[in-house]
Write a structure and sequence with these properties.
Length: about 150
């Protein structure tokens, strides 16, 4: 979204987005109350936010540890010459990689990985290491969870 489009978010849109960021399952009635709108008006606002591509999905936040993945790591990946697409495919096809960004700088990818054990981590990294150099940092805590960017010029 272009910067000028973001500036067209009014305070009502901002309240809707803040409420959805806190709870994507909020009812339309509750969402309307948060924004001081009728339910049909809130639904129309939400539809427009989706049409503009501002709201892309309604999702859930899952705790990997509760699913048996107590360890998380950030892996910086630098593919060997000619292996960029192969490494990208390996990351995409390895379900323990739960997030990955292609970045500028010395590394080509920064990925988040969840595993059940250090042995599992070693196995996954060994598979990637055949085609890339990696640097891994274990996550101790996440003091900033995924959040909305600033919606207004504060």
């Amino acid at each position: 979204m272009a910067a000028n489009e973001a500036s067209r978010l009014d305070s009502i849109d901002q309240r809707l987005l803040d409420a959805l960021a806190q709870n994507a399952r909020i009812s339309l009635k509750e969402l309307a109350q948060v924004a001081n709108l009728s339910s049909p008006s809130a639904a129309e606002r939400l539809r427009r936010l989706e049409e503009r591509g501002i709201v892309k999905a309604f999702t859930i936040d899952i705790d990997p540890a509760a699913l048996g993945y107590p360890l998380q790591a950030i892996v910086r990946v630098r593919p060997l010459p000619g292996q960029l697409h192969v490494v990208e495919r390996i990351i995409q096809e390895t379900p323990e990689f739960i997030e990955c960004d292609k970045v500028t700088g010395d590394d080509c990818f920064i990925a988040r990985l969840v595993v059940r054990s250090m042995g599992e981590l070693d196995g996954i990294l060994d598979k990637v290491a055949e085609k890339a150099e990696t640097n891994t940092s274990m996550i101790k805590a996440s003091p900033v969870k995924r959040r909305l960017p600033p919606l207004s010029s504060r």
